[in-house]
Design brief:
Layout (H helix, E strand, L loop, with lengths): L1 H6 L5 H8 L5 H5 L8 H11 L3 H16 L5 E10 L24 E8 L5 E8 L8 H12 L5 E4 L6 H9 L3 E5 L9 H5 L5 E4 L2 E6 L9 E7 H31 L5 H14 L1 H4 L2 E7 L6 E8 L1 H10 L2 E6 L6 H9 L1 H13 L11 H27 L6 H8 L4 E10 L2 E10 L4 H9 L9 E5 L15 E2 L1
Parallel strand pairs: 1-4, 4-5, 12-15
Antiparallel strand pairs: 1-2, 2-3, 5-11, 6-7, 7-8, 8-11, 9-10, 12-13, 13-14
Helix pairs in contact: 4-15, 9-10
């Protein structure tokens, strides 16, 4: 019930108990009577749910294998964070750290998610909110191997997970990897980047090429990639920073020319404030405070752009570097494997927006992890629905489908029946005829609504004063 409610966008256990459950068909589907659903029971459910995480994840892997033929040769790993409302003093993992939600004022936990290239979630771990991404890799890999065996699968990760220790750890376990690298490493491949030959077109506007390891190693290979659209975007972003930083520094220069400043430290703080705001532009600039020869007061700024750095920035725009020990030699194929990481990022977006993973209102450690597990299970439902829709030619907008299906209503009609001398009441359930577009969706999905009327028995089994809008009793 918790997972289905989260899948349908219900935000709290209290909302489930107070009005949502009784307005759905879940009572008929699950056999759980509405009077058994209350907030205390749902909270108790959260308290015991986390202990079943590994069994549930193993069950999902079997389902994926049976339904979609997933082989788990590739595993995508990424990390996100979600923040708390409140102090979360009862949660040992709640801490302030780098916030992907731009809420550095709140405590948070970090979540590491493993999924397939199709975006199907396999497993997750909850880490302390101040844990850095690079320190989570070994724990996740060991956990997956402990649960599912030490297969020679390929791990795909972004550059935030990369360290020499992690790479060596994966090698020792005979694991394959395809990872992004820090952009600073591009400088080692400047000649290959500027060389016009040897590039393979992956798709329109994107090229890739294999390059030798800078140390001549045979175990690894590097893939240089460059995107025309990404280059235009990065160029525009850098130019905007350069223009804004130059304008602010020019203001400081003019103010010092009008009125000399004897407090050099104060001038430095003013400069530092703007350099910190525009770091990409600051790397290309040198700023020197000009002083009066007699008083040593600041009378202006000398601002200069390093043309060599500016030229390199122009060459490296839109370029990035991948690192792998896979046996594959086609740079286009390696690039395609790497961009599957967007599926992990899309899974996080779905969990945070459609499934309301953030913010977290629970405070206790066990309930927080159970809340994240419920969101994880709802994400599995969501992704499976998208796979089903895609297979039926209905796109992948699960939210739109759910909104369309939610227009289907049923009604309970209370009918008086005379048995001998006694007058009793019988409840007859009928399902309203769906609108044309919804009927077409049901046909495409091979779903059929119940036909005819269903006699549920005496009305006492469905009291009129407890029925919701989807089951409206009508006395006749």
């Amino acid at each position: 019930v918790l997972s289905v409610a989260r899948f349908c966008g219900v935000l709290s256990e209290l909302a489930i108990a107070e009005h949502w459950y009784e307005r759905t068909a879940l009572e008929d589907i699950t056999g759980i009577a509405a009077e058994k659903i209350n907030d205390d029971r749902l909270y108790r459910g959260l308290d015991v749910l986390a202990a079943h995480k590994d069994r549930l994840c193993a069950h999902l892997m079997e389902r994926y294998r049976d339904w979609f033929g997933v082989r788990f040769e590739f595993l995508l790993y990424d990390v996100t964070s979600t923040f708390f409302e409140g102090q979360a003093e009862g949660n040992e993992k709640a801490a302030r750290g780098y916030s992907r939600d731009s809420r550095s004022d709140c405590k948070q936990v970090c979540i590491g998610l493993v999924c397939t290239p199709e975006g199907l979630p396999l497993s997750f771990e909850v880490f302390a909110g101040n844990r850095t991404d690079v320190t989570t890799v070994e724990e996740i890999v060991e956990k997956m191997e402990e649960t599912y065996g030490q297969a020679e699968r390929i791990w795909v990760m972004d550059r935030g997970m990369v360290s020499e220790n992690n790479i060596e750890f994966l090698r020792e376990r005979k694991a394959r990897y395809l990872v992004g690298t820090p952009k600073s490493q591009l400088k080692n491949f400047e000649a290959a980047l500027l060389d016009k030959d040897g590039w393979h077109e992956v798709q329109s506007g994107l090229e890739a090429r294999l390059v030798e390891h800078p140390d001549g190693g045979q175990e690894e290979k590097y893939v240089l990639c460059r995107s025309t659209e990404r280059a235009k975007k990065e160029q525009a972003m850098l130019q905007r920073q350069l223009d804004r930083l130059s304008a602010e520094l020019e203001k400081i220069h003019r103010s010092l020319q009008r009125r000399a400043q004897s407090d050099i430290e104060k001038v430095g703080r003013r400069i530092g404030r703007w350099i910190g705001k525009y770091p990409a532009a600051a790397k290309l600039m040198s700023v020197e405070v000009q002083r009066d020869e007699k008083s040593a007061a600041a009378v202006g700024l000398h601002i200069e752009i390093d043309q060599g750095k500016r030229d390199w920035a122009g060459h490296s725009h839109g370029a990035y570097l991948l690192r792998t020990n896979c046996t594959e030699t086609d740079p286009a194929q390696l690039w395609r494997w790497y961009v599957q990481l967007t599926q992990a990022e899309a899974a996080f977006r779905t969990a945070k927006s459609d499934l309301k993973l953030r913010p977290i209102y629970h405070q206790k450690t066990e309930r927080v992890e159970a809340h994240i597990l419920v969101c994880f299970l709802a994400l599995a439902l969501w992704r499976e629905l998208e796979q089903w829709m895609h297979g039926k030619g209905l796109g992948t907008c699960a939210r739109r489908l759910i909104e369309e299906i939610s227009t289907i209503k049923s009604m309970d009609v209370v009918v008086p029946v005379k048995k001998g001398e006694d007058l009793t009441q019988v409840t007859v359930r009928t399902v309203a005829k769906p609108e044309r577009r919804v009927a077409e969706l049901l046909t495409r999905l091979n779903l059929q609504l119940p036909k005819g009327n269903q006699i549920l028995g005496d009305v006492a089994a469905c009291p009129p004063d407890q029925a919701g809008p989807n089951h409206t009793p009508v006395k006749m």
